[in-house]
Amino acid sequence: MGIFKIEGGISLKGEITPQGAKNEALQILCAVLLTPEKVIINNIPDIIDINKLITLLGNLGVKIQKNGSGSYTFQADEVNIEYLETEAFKKEGGSLRGSIMIVGPLLARFGKGYIPKPGGDKIGRRRLDTHFEGFINLGAKFRYNREDHFYGVEAPKGLKGADMLLDEASVTGTANIVMAAVLAKGKTTVYNAACEPYLQQLCKMLNSMGAKITGVGSNLLTIEGVESLGGCEHRILPDMIEIGSWIGLAAMTKSEITIKNVSWDNLGVIPTTFRKLGITLERRGDDIYIPAHVDGYEVKTDIDGSILTIADAPWPGFTPDLLSIVLVVATQARGDVLIHQKMFESRLFFVDKLIDMGAKIMLCDPHRAVVMGHDFKSQLKATTMSSPDIRAGISLLIAALSAKGTSTIQNIEQIDRGYERIDERLRAIGANIVRA
Ligand SMILES: CC(=O)N[C@H]1[C@@H](OP(=O)(O)OP(=O)(O)OC[C@H]2O[C@@H](n3ccc(=O)[nH]c3=O)[C@H](O)[C@@H]2O)O[C@H](CO)[C@@H](O)[C@@H]1O
Ligand SMILES: C=C(OP(=O)(O)O)C(=O)O
Fold it and tell me: Which is a Gene Ontology cellular component entry for this protein (predicted)?
């Protein structure tokens, strides 16, 4: 397992360009299974999770050609569906969360889809019921083997469009159901659909392949099934979670940073949420400019003076993936913040490490933490820590960059699974970080 050694307490300066979005890329890569024609995808991030999914597609027989940095051509004209029943697939298929989204396309095109319990972060229960209830609504037969946690759906006679109301607006669940419904017979409506920008991107890509999806961007999608889909070219959006991470990093290290080409119109409430923490962000064209916060940043209260609460919610609410970053940034703010992580129950436990570093945080229960900001009057102390999940990992990295002295972060594979060449990119703006 690799480690990062970080010499903190240094202000950074410069420009940083966000990578392509991990969570969009996972959906888009699965969609290549829907057509025998060539699909070109640009701006694919070079990170562990994405590279694992590309390997999985290769093992399924998809032809893969690298065109250049971040650009690939995929062709799923000879899919080896038997691979789904091998021991190798049982091992490999479960190693990331995003692999669950191969099931919808395979079911739609080949009448069957199997998957071992998918991996991803250990951040609480991660149910798959919404996915499989959706497939069942489309006429698939479902089976689950409790012993080896293996899920399967089959529809040898094809899928049939249906009206459905999802039990929750699951992001990967909606993507999976949409990818199954595009090739079903007749009309499907999906209400309480997730509608975040990455899902909108998926729907736009599918429409460019010949699918008929309307309502894109809303929570009611209507899908007219088509016989087959063709090839296309698609570009992945910048990663909004990475953008939020750089905003937090800039504020915490009092650095002047420009985040390039962020696709502002797809950031939703992310900029306003950081502004509530007192962070100044300027829109400059499609860039975000963050001045050095030499005098710190002051948390805004609610209109009636009550303590600011930052909570997650399905899009267009604030993404749960940025709450850990907001929490670490709050430790040096002027004022107090309640962080309410509603979706996942094990994502706040990393606060122990921040408390060890000197942060004032009260963990009220698994979902809520009150952060009492230091206003930089007391700097965090460098320490040795281990990254429990991807977003806690980056939050600890931000804490280490702000702390005086040398910190060590272990288990950095958790960070590498979502952030491309992070050490190299941070060194380019002046950070003292080495990989060992
Ligand atoms: C590979 C990928 O794209 N992963 C993202 C995806 O995961 P994923 O698609 O797995 O997450 P889901 O949207 O299914 O649900 C996330 C959690 O929120 C709960 N939930 C969800 C919707 C809802 O209306 N109410 C509710 O309580 C679910 O029970 C679950 O515990 O979306 C999550 C929520 O944005 C992100 O954290 C993950 O980074
Ligand atoms: C939780 C995340 O990823 P995954 O769903 O892949 O575990 C994340 O990206 O923050």
Answer: cytoplasm
Per-residue pLDDT reduced to its tens digit, 321-335: 999 999 999 999 999
Q: Whose CA is nearest to atom 10 of ligand 2?
A: 321
Annotated binding site for UDP-N-acetyl-alpha-D-glucosamine: 97, 321, 343
Q: Report the distance separating Cα 429 and Cα 164, nearest Å.
A: 49
Q: What is the pTM of this model?
A: 0.97
Cβ neighbours, 10 Å, residue 54: 19
The domain 3-19+238-435 having CATH identifier 3.65.10.10: the answer here is yes
pLDDT in tens, 124-179: 888 999 999 999 999 999 999 888 888 999 999 999 999 999 999 999 999 999 99
> How many angstroms separate the alpha carbon of residue 171 from the centre of ligand 1?
6
Residues comprising the binding site?
A: 22-23, 97, 321, 343
Is 97 touching ligand 2 by the criterion CB < 6 Å?
A: yes
Q: Which atom of ligand 2 is nearest to the CA of 119?
A: 7
Ligand 2 neighbourhood includes 390 CB (under 6 angstroms): yes
Where b means 16+ CB within 10 Å and e means fewer, 186-222 reads: eebbbebbbbbbbbbbbbbbbbebbbebebbeebebb
Q: Which of 121, 239, 312, 389 is catalytic?
A: 121
Fold that domain 22-235 belongs to in CATH: UDP-n-acetylglucosamine1-carboxyvinyl-transferase; Chain (3.65.10)
- Residues of the chain above pLDDT 70, percent: 100
Q: Is 418 in the pocket of ligand 2 (CB under 6 A)?
A: yes
**Tens of pLDDT along 285-311?**
999 999 999 999 999 999 999 999 999
163 annotated active-site: no
In the chain, domain spans: 3-19+238-435, 22-235
Side-chain-facing half-sphere of 392: CA atoms under 13 Å: 23
